[in-house]
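Quick one: structure for this chain?
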Amino acid sequence: MEDVAKAAGVSRTTVSFVLNNIPNSNIADATRERVLQVARELDYAPNTQALNLVTGRTMMIALVVRKTTHQMASDAFLGAVIEGIMQAIEPHGYHLMIHAAQPDGVNSTYRDLIRTRKADGLVISSPMVSDAEVRLLHDEGTPVVLQGASTMEGVASIDVDNEQGAYDAVRHLIELGHRRIGHISNAPFSYAASCERLNGYRKALAEAGIPFDRALVREGNFTAESGYEPMYALLDLEDRPTAVFIGSDEVALGALDAARQRGITAPDDLSVIGFDNLPVGRYLQPPLTTVHLPAFDLGREAGNMILALVRSEHLPRLKVSLPTRLILRGSTAPVPA
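Got it. Here's what it folds into:
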C-alpha cells in the first residue's frame, strides 16, 4: 500500500480508502482512478491477515452442508447451489468455503468457523428439524442463513415450497388413477425438507379420500444407493404400490434400479416420480417425471441474504420460499389394467 501511495502521489490513507471502497470518503474521481491504475500496474494484493485485523472481517462465507462427505460428493444438486452463492458474493469481494457437518455428530463446526475467525457468516444447507447450535449462534449475533426448510423463528431462511411440490407430484399420480402410492423420502425425517415433502404427500392423499398407510412410506438418505432397499421393500408388499413418489431424483436412481432387478418397468408396471429435476433425469429411459427445484436461484438468494446480514443491512423478508413446478415426462402413466 505504501508503494501504491508513493507511485500515485497520494497518502496511504487515500490508498486505503480507495482500495477498500470506503463510502463517503470524498476522494475525487481522477484521484481514485489514478490509485486504481497504479495498483493494477504494481499488481497490488492486500495482506489478508492484516486486513482481517483492521476490519474485523475475513471476507469469507462458509457453506456448511449437513451431510457426510460421501453424501456431499454424490450430490448433483449442490453444484448449482454453490454456483448461485458464489455469483452473489464474489462481486463484493467475498469468497466461499465449504464444510461438511456430520448429521449425527456434534455441531461444533458452526462455532469453530465463527469463533476462530475463519468466516464472517454461515449458510447452512439441509438443516435439521431441531438444531440448538443454530439458535445459539443466531442469538449471539452471528449472521446465519438456513438454505432449506426451517421452523426457527427469527432465523433467516431460503427454501422452495416443499409441501406444495410434493402435493403436486402426488396429485398428478392420483389424477392418473393411482390409489396405492408409495413414498421414499429424500432424507431421514430428522431433516425439515423431508418432513415437508411427506406432509405434501399426505395432504394429496387426504384430499382424494385415500387413507394414509405407513407401510407405504420408506426413508432414503440423499444417495442413489439409499433408494434401492426402500424400493425393494415396497415391491415386497403383498399389496404393492402402483406408483411411487420419491423425494429426490438422486434417490430415485437407486429405486429404479431395484425395480429393474425385479423385472418391473416404468411406467408399464409402476409409475415413478422424483423431485429436484437433476439433468440426468431427462436422459433416463424412460425420462423421469419430476418436480423442478431452482437450485441456482436458491444459492443466489442465500448468498444475497448472508451478504446483507454480514454487512448489517436490513432484510426485507426473513423467510423466502421459491416456487416449484411439475415436469411431466415418460415415467408416469395411468394405472395398468
